[in-house]
């Protein structure tokens, strides 16, 4: 009979591959883990938050599988206004976010970072911007709405926030 400690030794996990037990350093880098340089940490964290916001907006634009220039313009305006970025910074951020999120299957890394670093007010602003992107092409797709609903839950916002953001973003012709 095996003892408890013997069954759960780190060397027993994936012994044929020699994989390390934990790769938290990679995750720490993405989620703004500890560094010795506080100035770099603040800059990296803000860049990561900007990337996470851009990624969520891009996910909404891509949810209906239609590449609409109105949605792209709406993303650019939202990033400029909500994140207080210049137009040149927004274009670079969007290009970087497109390459980083290509083939992404999970929203958790983005929403987790936003939950850790952003206020409720900014989370609601992001949600409203997501709705604006969904409405931008004149067709609210069920996949866009479902994605925004999932993000609302992942950002730990209430259904009332979901509805308020939708109403704030809704164009007058709807």
Topology of helices and strands:
Blueprint: H1 4-7, H2 24-30, H3 38-63, H4 69-83, H5 87-101, H6 108-117, H7 120-136, H8 142-154, H9 159-169
Helix pairs in contact: 3-4, 3-5, 3-6, 3-7, 3-8, 4-5, 4-7, 7-8, 7-9
Structural class: mainly alpha
Quaternary? single chain
**Cα distance spanning the termini:** 68 Å
CATH fold description? TerB-like
Could you give the order of the helices and strands?
Answer: HHHHHHHHH
Number of helices: 9
CATH architecture: Orthogonal Bundle
What portion of residues belong to β-strands? Answer: under 5%
> What is the domain tally?
1
Gyration radius (Cα, Å) is 19 Å
Report the strand count. 0
- Which percent bin holds the helix content? 55-70%
Low-confidence stretches: 1-29, 34-40
What is the CATH class name? Mainly Alpha
Morphology: globular
CATH H-level superfamily title: TerB-like
The major beta sheet can be summarized as: none
Mean pLDDT: 81
How does this structure look, described?
This protein is mainly α and 174 residues long. It has one domain: Orthogonal Bundle (TerB-like). The chain contains nine helices and no strands. Mean pLDDT is 81; it is low at 1-29 and 34-40.
């Amino acid at each position: 009979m095996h003892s408890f400690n013997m069954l759960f030794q780190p060397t027993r996990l994936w012994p044929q591959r020699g994989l390390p037990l934990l790769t938290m350093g990679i995750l720490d880098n993405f989620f703004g883990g500890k560094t010795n340089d506080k100035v770099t940490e603040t800059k990296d964290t803000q860049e990561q938050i900007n990337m996470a916001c851009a990624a969520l907006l891009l996910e909404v634009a891509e949810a209906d599988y239609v590449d609409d220039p109105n949605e792209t313009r709406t993303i650019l305006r939202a990033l400029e206004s909500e994140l207080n970025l210049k137009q040149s910074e927004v274009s670079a951020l969007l290009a970087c976010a497109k390459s980083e999120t290509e083939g992404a299957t999970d929203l958790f890394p983005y929403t987790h970072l936003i939950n850790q670093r952003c206020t409720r007010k900014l989370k609601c602003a992001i949600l409203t911007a997501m709705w604006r992107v969904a409405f931008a092409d004149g067709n609210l797709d069920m996949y866009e709405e479902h994605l925004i609903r999932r993000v609302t839950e992942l950002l730990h916002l209430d259904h009332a926030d979901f509805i308020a953001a939708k109403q704030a973003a809704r164009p007058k012709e709807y």
